[in-house]
Every structure is written in structure tokens, then in C-alpha cells.
Amino acid sequence: MTSGSVPAPAALAGPFPAARSLADPDTPFAVVDVHRVRRNAARLRARADRLGVTLRPHVKTAKSLDAAALLHDGTPGPVTVSTLAEAEAFAGAGCRDITYAVGIEPHKLPRVVALSRRGVTLRVLLDSTEQATFVAAAAREAGIALPAQIEIDCDGHRGGLRPDAPGLTGIAGILHDAGCLDGVLTHAGESYSCYTAEERREAARNERDAAVAAAERLRAAGLPVPTVSVGSTPTAHAAEDLTGVTELRAGNYVFFDLVMAGLGVCGLDDLALSVVVTVIGHRPEYGWIVTDGGWMAMSRDRGTAVQPQDQGYGLVTDLSGTPIPGLVMTAASQEHGTLTARDGAALPDLPIGTRLRVLPNHACATAAQHQGYHVVDGSGGTRAPVPGVEAYWPRVTGW
Q: Which of 88, 134, 332, 352 is the 20 to 30 A CA-CA neighbour of 95?
């Protein structure tokens, strides 16, 4: 993985031609501001250091070896993944400490065993006796430990066991007997509905308390709990005390997005991901500007629709990244985006061929629509009318 300055355009990878500026590639395409990525990464690293915990970034947002290289300040470090393809790609790049934070199922265990045989510590996640039993059986058959963490439900979000669930110690015992018990993990999914700083702090306290309570219960039963893992982007940035916790996870923060800005976790100037689109038409009778970037470029995610300020499918900036007052992407079909003005703003005069950037609702979903990122560096303090491209970062593909 790269760790220093961004490679020159000559190093662009894959089938994409070397782009010298954002005026070159055909639209739509994804853009990442590496200066903002570095700043976002440094902010959370410093917070984890202050809280005395290991930072384990979730790489599912960018799915990029180049982006991940910046998360630990250029040095190898632990990561979280959401697919085994990610685990395999990061292992291939030299990462040896990986948590696969999606519930395990039997069909995937041969790939887990294969990575373990390569010297990778790949932790799996589970929340049932059935899963613990087949993980333990696979470990015994392979003759190696397969470290597993028990998912704890801290807020009624998706999977996991409550800290006081009757089956918790039994599941842990099955894993321990096979040498597989690695600890507990929780994720405060409901923090994405916390609109005040105090609500986010309370979500972080609740997340910590649930994980620590589960760990203490297992230890009281004579079971080892080396890892107590918590995290979401909102709680990671709100936590004030992580006593009893060993590691902190977050993923969205590498790019941030309009949902996080709407919650108050970040500002618009922290958003590192955008999509470049081109004006292809006008419907003045409807107050529309039409672009070539629809939901295939932005995704269908409408995460801000439930927030006090609905941002449509994204906020619009000029090519330099300067927001255009009141201009929002309010509708999308597969390859067409519709821009309209709101809050009394005048619809700007944008001729056909004008390039714009759209800030996404959900960085993870928008990034998934693209094979990689054209990289710009916004650290100069002034916004170039047509930013130069410094590199191309391909994304990890496959499942």
C-alpha cells in the first residue's frame, strides 16, 4: 500500500486513461480530495489516541488500498472489512490483522481458513450457537484457531445478542473450547438517528456499556475476552470515555457525506467524495437543469430525506468544489440527474457542457457505483477552476 505523497498521473492504474485534470475523463466519475481524506483520518486517529484505544478503520467505504494506506498515517494497521474479497485484497497487500464484521456462514469458512493458513489473523463475527458450532468444527478440522467475536446488540440494530442474553455464555464456551473465542463486538447503528451532540454522546456511552457488560459477564464465567470492540462514525467522534474497551471502529469518516454533515458529525468542507457530472439539457418551464449523472452515478440512497434538511440526491458545487447556493440534485433516473434551485435561489445559467460536482448523501453507496476515484489535492488553500488530477485509486472488486 502506498503511504507517502500521491503518485503522479503517469501511475494511474487499470483501463482508465491518464487524466491531467477534472476536465479530461468522460462523466460521470468519482473524485476524492486526498487532503480531506488525510485530515479526516488524522482527526479520528488523534481521538483514538486520547481515548487510549486501538483504531480499527472499516475499509468498506472506500474499498481502496490507497485510501486505507492513509488511515494509519502510512503504516500498516488493523482494519475491518465487510466482504471476504476485501479481506483477501488487503491480505494480499500485506495486512495481517483483519476483522470480518458480517455474520459468518458455513460456505465462506474455507476462504477464512485459507487466509488463516497464509498467516492472516482474520476474526469472524457471530451471534448464535449454530454459528459457533460450525466455526469450532471448522477450526478443529483445519487444526488452526479461527478467532471469533460475539456480536452484541446495543440498540436493537440488525443482529447481535443483548449483554444479558441467556445464550451468551454458552456460545462463548463453544468457541473457547475450540480455542476460537476472541471477544465481543458491537455497533451503534441507531446513532445515525442522533441529531444532537448529547444524543451522540449518550449513544456512545450506551455502546460502550453494552460491550463492557457482555465482556464482564463472560469473564465472570471464567472465559477470556481479549477484545472489546465498539464503533460507528457518529459514536467514534462523540465518545468521551472508553474505559473497558480495547478498540474503536469507524468507516464512513474517511470520506464523510451529507448524512454525517446533517447529523453534525462533520461539516461540508470535510466531505472528500464527489461525483463529476455534465450539464446535458435544460427544461426552463420546470426549473430544471439536466445532467448525465443519475442514480447509477449517485446511488438511490436518500438518507437525508429523514433529516431536518433534505438534500435530495446531493448538493451541487462547481468544478472547483465551491457550493452553488441553493442548487440541489432533486431527482434521478438511471443516467439522468435533475438539478433544481431551492430556498428562493435563482437557477444558475449553466450552459450545456458545464461540469459540476455533486456531494453524496451516503459515501459508501455512491462510491460503490464506481470502479475507482480520480484524486485531487485541495490542500493549496485556493480552489483551482479546473483541479488537476494527481492519481487514480482503483477500488477492490468482487465478493
A: 134
